[in-house]
Amino acid sequence: MKTIKFNEFQKKIMEVIKKGAFLTVKDRKEINTMTIGWGSIGVIWGIPIFTVLVRDSRYTHKLIENSDQFTVSIPFKGQFKKELNYCGTYSGRDVDKFEELDLEIINGKKIDTPFIKGNDIHYECEVVYKQDMDKSLLFDQNIKNKFYPSGDYHTVYYGKIIGTYQE
Amino acid sequence: MKTIKFNEFQKKIMEVIKKGAFLTVKDRKEINTMTIGWGSIGVIWGIPIFTVLVRDSRYTHKLIENSDQFTVSIPFKGQFKKELNYCGTYSGRDVDKFEELDLEIINGKKIDTPFIKGNDIHYECEVVYKQDMDKSLLFDQNIKNKFYPSGDYHTVYYGKIIGTYQE
C-alpha cells in the first residue's frame, strides 16, 4: 500500500476550506457574514449536506438559530484575503461588515439569505439538523485545550445543499 | 449566476459515497465491516475529518464505541457490488462476513483496525469526537419519517484522518 497525502477530492476540499470562505446568514433584516476555515461536505440522509460549526458566542449564531438557513461563498483563487481576515476578526454586532468592506451581495435564489458577490462558488443551504457540542464527548484533549479553553463550544449545523451556483 | 448541479469536488464525493464503501471496525479480536452510503469529508478543528454515522442498533456501533477508531475503504470503480449489498443486509452478529464473502484484509498502518483489500482508497481514522443524535433537534419531518420511524437514531463519529492510502 502506498501512503498518499490526500486523495484528489479530499485535497480539493481541504485546500478550499482552509483558505477561508464566507458563511452568510440573515434573520429578517439582520445580515451577517463570517469567515469559516472549517467545514465538511458529503451525503447524509441521502442528500447533499454542508456542515458548518458556529460558536454559541457569535453574532452569526443568533441569526442562524432564528433563520435555519445559510449560504457559503468560496473564493477559489485566493481573492478576498483582506475581507476574510476582517470578517474573522470583527463581530457583526459591532460593525457593518458590508459597509466597511464594500461587500456586495447577490440575493438568494431559493432562500432569503444572500451570497457574497465575487466568489467562485456559492452554496445555498437549509438547516435540517443542528446540535450543540457536548464537551463531555470531546475526548481529544489537544482539541479541547486548543479550541475550547474558555468553554465556548460550537453548534454543528447540517445544511441541506439546495443550490450550488457559479457566478 | 449559473446554477450548476454540483461543483467538481462535491460531485466526486457524492458519487463515491453514494455508491457505497466499507466501514470497518475492530475491538480486540472482533472485526466487522458494514456498508455505508453516507459520510462527509472536510476540515474541522484544523484537521482532516471523516464523519460517519452508525445506528445504535448496529454491531459496528458496539465495536466502534469500544475502540474509537475505524477505517473506510472505497471502491471507485464499482467493484464489490455483491459484497456491499451483503454487508448492508446482514449483521456481523449473525454471520462472519469475511468468511462468507472471502473478504481479505490489509492490516492497519497506524491503528489496529484493518482495511478491506481490493479497494481503491483507504482512510484510517481515529475518533476525536462523537455524539448521539438528539431527535428533538431533527426538525426535518421528511428525514425523521424516512429514516427514523422506529426511533433508531445514529451516533455521529468524527474521525481524524490519520492516514490515506492507495493499494
Explain how this protein is built.
The structure is a homodimer of 167-residue chains. The first copy, chain A, is α+β, with helices and mostly antiparallel strands and 167 residues long. Chain A contains 5 helices and 10 strands; from the N terminus they run E-H-E-E-E-E-H-E-H-H-E-E-E-H-E. The first copy, chain A, has helices spanning 8-19, 59-67, 81-87, 97-100, 141-147; strands at residues 2-4, 21-27, 30-36, 39-44, 47-55, 69-74, 105-106, 115-116, 121-132, 154-166. The first copy, chain A, has a 7-stranded antiparallel beta sheet with strand order 3-2-6-9-10-5-4. The first copy, chain A, has a two-stranded antiparallel ribbon with strand order 7-8. In chain A, a hairpin with a 2-residue loop joins strand 2 (21-27) and strand 3 (30-36). Chain A starts with a strand and ends with a strand. The model of chain A has no long low-confidence stretch (mean pLDDT 91). Chains A and B meet through strand 1, helix 1, strand 4, strand 5 and strand 9 of A and strand 1, helix 1, strand 4, strand 5 and strand 9 of B. Strand 10 of chain A pairs antiparallel with strand 1 of chain B.
